[in-house]
Input
Amino acid sequence: MSTVLVIKAHPRTANVANSVVIGERFVEAYQRAHPEDQIIVHDLYEEGVPEINSSNLDSWTKLTNGTTYQELSENEQILLSRQQKLQEQFIHADKYVFVSPMYNLFIPNRLKMYLDLVIVSTKTWVEGEHGPEGTLHDKKALHIQSSGGTYHHTDNEFMAKLDLGDSYLKALLGQVGIKDYQGIYCEGNSHRGPEDMAANRELIAKQAEEVAKEF
Output
């Protein structure tokens, strides 16, 4: 049995959102194809993400300097407990599905906040002789992304270099040892009318369903 961690990072949860719809179709198809697997879904905009700020940095420093967990304040314990739970879920998952729109050529801020929280030294990577060495092996990741422009299904070399968020996610996961990475991209949405957008979304959703069978 595998554990699949689905990370939804789209603020539009009440209305139709391309990446969310495609992500849901992927999950439904995956469940049908792999009924024995466990699927954990985190909606970062509904649940929120603990922010790395002075409060939790101070808490981490206290623990590093010898303060026990029981000696921390109740608020510090609650904050660190949630952070630790998210980190442990990420570390022990076998497969990852990231669902997000592109914002200004990058991933949404809450997805970046989540990654900063769960990808940490000594747990997901260690300093090796030639630089960082990942500790998460034999895992796979999928990025389902919607965007206004076209960055992947194009022969335009300039546009092909501008999806910095997807490149960042692939590089970051590779650093921690997750080398099996693929993407499903619903693109060119700013140039489509409602009917064309719906048709394209359906096309990409069907592709996602096919990918789910073998993921």
Observations:
- The longest strand covers residues 95-101.
- The mean pLDDT is 92.
- Residues 59 and 65 are 10 Å apart (CA to CA).
- The two ends are 13 Å apart (CA to CA).
